[in-house]
Write a structure and sequence with these properties.
- The chain has about 160 residues and is an alpha+beta fold.
- The chain is built from five helices and eight strands, in the order ααββααβββββαβ.
- The protein has one domain: Alpha-Beta Complex (endopeptidase fold (from Nostoc punctiforme)), CATH 3.90.1720.
């Protein structure tokens, strides 16, 4: 009888521990991933713009986001529309490092994306002939073209 009780208890304990291993990421762990992704994007400053690029050989805007999150184990789709679909709106006042900031360019709403760094700054791959660089909301161009801030919904 005691042996049976010990086996049942052991099974219950093991299942309880294993169930805790498959948890959904908490806000803190998602925030940590975003911060690390921002670090990877920041390390790409100076790399060239390349349409469709998502490697240190060259990046477009969503390629930089995809690459940076990929370096921390998060697989993201290409394109700003897809990134919009898998994120939710946050106020600019609640931005966290690694959040996505979108801008309207050439009349296309939310057609450009960047990774937020903190302190009103973000890193992005701007356009042909330019390199990845850090910009800020204090710059008039980015103030005029800012569309929305969003946070990824990471599984």
């Amino acid at each position: 009888m005691l042996l049976r009780f010990i086996r049942i208890f052991s099974c219950f304990f093991t299942l309880t521990v294993l169930a805790g291993c498959g948890h959904t990421p908490t806000a803190k762990s998602v925030s940590a991933l975003g911060s690390r992704a921002a670090d990877h994007a920041l390390a790409m400053v100076g790399k060239p713009y390349r349409y469709g690029g998502n490697s240190p050989k060259g990046f477009d805007c969503s390629g930089l986001v995809q690459y940076s999150y990929g370096r921390v184990g998060v697989k993201l789709p290409r394109g700003t529309r897809n990134l919009l679909q898998m994120s939710h709106t946050v106020s600019r006042n609640n931005l966290r490092r690694g959040d996505l900031v979108f801008f309207t360019q050439e009349g296309k709403k939310s057609s450009h994306v960047a990774l937020y760094l903190g302190d009103g700054r973000f890193v992005h791959s701007p356009s042909r002939g330019k390199n990845v660089y850090v910009a800020g909301f204090n710059e008039p161009y980015w103030q005029r073209h800012f569309t929305e801030a969003r946070r990824l919904e990471i599984d």
